[in-house]
Design brief:
Layout: E1 5-9, H1 13-24, E2 28-32, E3 45-47, H2 50-58, E4 69-77, E5 83-95, H3 96-104, E6 112-113, E7 118-124, E8 127-132, E9 137-140, E10 142-145, H4 152-157, E11 164-176, H5 182-188, E12 192-195, E13 201-207, E14 220-228, H6 231-238, H7 257-270, H8 273-281, E15 285-293, E16 298-299, E17 302-304, E18 310-311, H9 319-337, H10 339-369, H11 380-383, H12 387-395, H13 397-407
Parallel strand pairs: 1-2, 1-10, 2-6, 4-12, 10-17
Antiparallel strand pairs: 3-5, 4-5, 7-8, 8-9, 11-14, 11-15, 12-13, 13-14, 15-18, 16-17
Helix pairs in contact: 1-3, 1-9, 7-8, 9-10, 10-13
The protein binds flavin-adenine dinucleotide.
């Protein structure tokens, strides 16, 4: 793609991988992010997989001890705080901020533009024009929509296709290691911990801390708590701010204080005390869990990537890895076949992969979705977690992801 230009819409992990990998095949790639300020303060834990680590290595970023926190044990606690199942594992838990920082730091400053909201795209025989909310326009040979689950780029081409809510939310929280009481730090901090109240899943694990620090004492504890939540009443109420305004995606600071107090009280009533204690010291927020499968991810010289193309439930912990694999597949296909045939190849491969990942993640999430049925209509399997099955799924995540890649013929590019 030497001498050609690409506009990458969205400056999160997908957009950054796309800019780097297209850059590596000679393309002049520029990222446009709608947020006016640097995104580094976005904090959330990110599980990693070998495929993500391989693509980072390809970009010259070694996944060393500064990139994440190693965990060697998965443990399930019961409501009383007793460990009821335990297994060895070998995972590196990173954070969105750490991966973003590593990728963004290697991009030339003029290749990443903040405060640029894409509103329209036009195409002709010679290329693509992007129109931004500030009135500016940019022209290029290729436009990549890496603008997330509620992608503007996707909506321009497939307005009827919207992500669907799967019946549960994830309450999330991060607590600095220094704020975790010393006895809990010794007991749970370095473990991948689960607690399984009826129909719910509470997960905690260590991640890089505030300044992306992975040294002991400077890390953070990350919590994801999946809770079935009916859309019309409870979710609508959760998404309503103190002024009575309802949001599609409510910003964390606008979540009403009484809802935050209530979820902390629920944690104390339902979750192992050591995990509930950490959760209740943090500032939780929630995200509705969504799913989306695009029937098409290439429209002329426009390609969708990452969550803009497919949103899988987060159980496989592979959204970032998928964004990286999509970007690598796009760059490799264009390098091998040229721009237009390369885009066709990209679409064919990554639609298969997106569908495979969606199916894998749905298998685990179906238990949670089933909880919205009246209790008497739930099967025995839906009423009780299979603890061994859950722990096995966590230990074998990366192997399962490898199987999806192999089965869909989309093995990680080298
Ligand atoms: C509860 C939960 C847990 C998760 N856990 C993990 C995990 O452990 N491991 C993992 O790998 N993944 C995890 N994920 C998924 C992961 O966060 C996403 O898959 C990943 O962030 C997708 O990256 P993306 O770049 O495609 O999209 P996003 O991160 O959504 O970024 C899209 C970007 O585009 C920008 N944008 C949007 N519209 C426009 C526009 N019109 N113009 C310009 N810019 C625009 C946005 O501001 C944003 O910065 C989890 C997700 C959830 C909800």
């Amino acid at each position: 793609m030497s001498g050609q230009r690409a506009l990458v819409i969205g400056g999160s992990v997908g957009g950054l991988f796309a800019a780097h990998l297209l850059g590596s095949i000679g393309c002049d790639a520029v990222v446009f992010e709608r947020n006016p300020d640097d995104l580094i303060s976005r904090g959330a834990g990110i599980a990693t997989h070998p495929q993500l680590i391989d693509i980072m290595a390809r970009l010259g970023i070694a996944f060393d001890d500064t990139m994440g926190v190693k965990v060697g044990t998965v443990v399930v606690y019961d409501r009383g705080g007793r460990a009821i199942a335990e297994r060895r594992t070998d995972r590196i838990m990173s954070s969105w901020g750490r991966i973003y920082h590593a990728l963004k730091g290697r991009l030339p400053p003029d290749a990443y533009r903040l405060g640029k909201t894409l509103i329209h795209v036009a195409q002709d025989r010679d290329g693509v024009t992007a129109f931004f909310a500030d009135g500016s326009e940019e022209r290029a040979d290729l436009l990549v929509g890496a603008d997330g689950a509620r992608s503007t780029v996707r909506e321009l081409f497939m307005p009827a296709l919207q992500p669907s809510y799967v019946g549960y939310v994830a309450w999330r929280a991060m607590l600095d290691e220094g704020e975790v009481p010393a006895d809990l730090r010794a007991a749970v901090f370095e473990r991948f911990a689960l607690c399984l109240p009826e129909g719910e899943m509470f997960i905690g694990y260590p991640v890089p801390g505030r300044d992306n620090e992975t040294r002991a004492g400077r890390r953070a504890y990350n919590i994801v708590w999946y809770r079935p939540t009916d859309p019309e009443v409870t979710l609508a109420d959760l998404c309503t701010d103190a002024n009575g305004r309802r949001h599609a995606a409510i910003p964390p600071p606008l979540i009403r204080p009484e809802l935050v107090a209530a979820i902390k009280a629920t944690a104390r009533a339902k979750v192992a005390p050591q995990l509930a204690e950490i959760f209740s010291r943090a500032q939780p927020f929630f995200q509705p869990i969504l799913e989306l499968a695009s029937p098409q991810i290439v429209f002329g010289r426009v390609a969708l990537l990452g969550d803009a193309a497919f949103v899988a439930r987060p159980h496989a912990g592979a959204g970032t890895t998928k964004a990286a694999l999509d970007a690598a597949s796009l760059a490799d296909a264009i390098a091998a076949c040229g721009l237009d045939p390369g885009l066709e190849r990209y679409q064919c491969r990554q639609i298969r992969f997106g569908r495979g990942l969606l199916t894998l993640a749905r298998l685990e999430g179906e238990h949670l979705s089933a909880q919205l049925k009246p209790r008497e209509q739930r099967t025995a399997a839906e009423l009780q977690w299979d603890v061994e099955g859950v722990i096995h799924a966590h230990v074998s995540r990366s192997a399962e992801l490898r199987k999806v890649l192999d089965a869909t013929g989309t093995s990680a590019p080298t």
